[in-house]
Amino acid sequence: MKHxxxxxxxxxxxxxxxxxxxVFGLLRxxxxxxxxxxxxxxxxxxxxxxxxxxxALTVGEDRGFRNTVxxxxxxxxxxxxxxxxxxxxxxxxxxxxxxxxVCLPHKLVVAVRGGEGGPDAIAR
Length: 124
Description:
This protein is of the alpha+beta class. It contains 2 helices and 7 strands; from the N terminus they run αβββββαββ. It folds into 2 domains: 1-30; 33-116, mini-chromosome maintenance (MCM) complex, domain 2 (Sandwich), CATH 2.60.320.10. Helices cover 27% and strands 38% of the residues. The strands form 2 sheets. A 4-stranded antiparallel sheet has the order 2-1-7-6, with no helix packed on it. The radius of gyration is 20 Å and the shape is elongated.
């Protein structure tokens, strides 16, 4: 009896892993590249940066903090911040519609939006 239960548990775990892998693969194939990065501080939009043009922007100096946002190669990231944990810097590059970088101490959000949908968007 114990052997049969163990076998059923293993089969259930294997089926769940296959299902999770299929969902993950489907999501990866259907995500869309973004067209622009929207930079907001405390809920207010301070810049909209097209991902097609390489640029850098320093945000927050007039509010007593500093975050540097960089766009290069169709991606965006926070390259520098004077917040204590610098999690926003460690998050790295984002480029897909719906992805975001958040700096909680500075109430900064960099969100990617707009883009083309479907598997063809990944081939760019």
